[in-house]
Design goal:
It contains 6 helices and 6 strands, in the order βαααβββααβαβ. By secondary structure, it is of the alpha+beta class. The protein has a 3-stranded mixed β-sheet. A 3-stranded antiparallel β-sheet has the order 2-6-5. α2 runs antiparallel to α3 (60-75). It is globular and about 50 Å long.
């Protein structure tokens, strides 16, 4: 069975799902985070980077990964990208997508968008940038950045197919990458380009 096709799209993890690390370490304590009601500034690149640097709970490796991800995605003029957490030669797209694209859905729209398949290994990129980490470490760092709401990660896998989630109640529990996540759809939290978080950490 092919996944991420027009007839069998993937479900996109919503933005307003639980973010435990943001709940724990900031003034935002809601079970489901909704930053749309927070007063915001004009969107700027420097504000997003400032929100990375101002977080005292991020490790140096997490700061670098958050910065590299944002730079890569922002350079393309988008707020999303498909990345590989393993080495390029070890990852296969066999059985994923069709016509060179991956199809996504959500509970409101049968097909909410497609994204061109690009075999981009973020792990290889980090190694070339002298950040020598393993795949399991990268997955853990991505989950922590997701937990702080810098990014939203959707694992490209059968358990995230739309028909699977359409039969589930979307609980408040946090939805993280599995320890075997090879292919990940990453979206930048655009609210962090508009909201200054410097005084929000606790």
């Amino acid at each position: 069975m092919r996944i991420g096709t027009e007839d069998n799209p993937l479900w996109v993890i919503p933005e307003n799902t639980t973010r435990k690390l943001l709940n724990e370490h900031s003034k935002y304590k809601e079970e489901k985070i909704d930053l749309s009601r927070t007063p915001s500034n004009r969107s700027t690149k420097n504000l997003y980077i400032g929100n990375i640097l101002s977080n005292p709970y991020l490790t140096l490796e997490e700061v670098k990964i958050a910065y590299y991800l944002y730079e890569l995605i922002e350079e393309e003029g988008l707020n999303e990208k498909i990345i590989l957490t393993s080495k390029k030669e070890k990852t296969s797209f066999r059985g994923i997508g069709e016509y060179g694209s991956i199809y996504f859905s959500n509970k409101n729209k049968p097909i909410c968008g497609t994204l061109q398949i690009e075999k981009f290994s973020f792990l290889d990129y980090l190694h070339k940038s002298n950040l020598k980490i393993q795949q399991n470490e990268l997955i853990n760092y991505l989950n922590r950045l997701h937990g702080f709401y810098y990014i939203t990660c959707t694992e490209i896998c059968e358990s995230n197919l739309d028909y699977v989630w359409s039969n589930k109640k979307h609980s408040a529990k946090e939805i993280l990458l599995s320890d075997k996540a090879d292919i990940v759809f990453v979206r930048i939290n655009e609210y962090f380009t508009k909201i200054d978080m410097a005084r929000s950490w606790q």
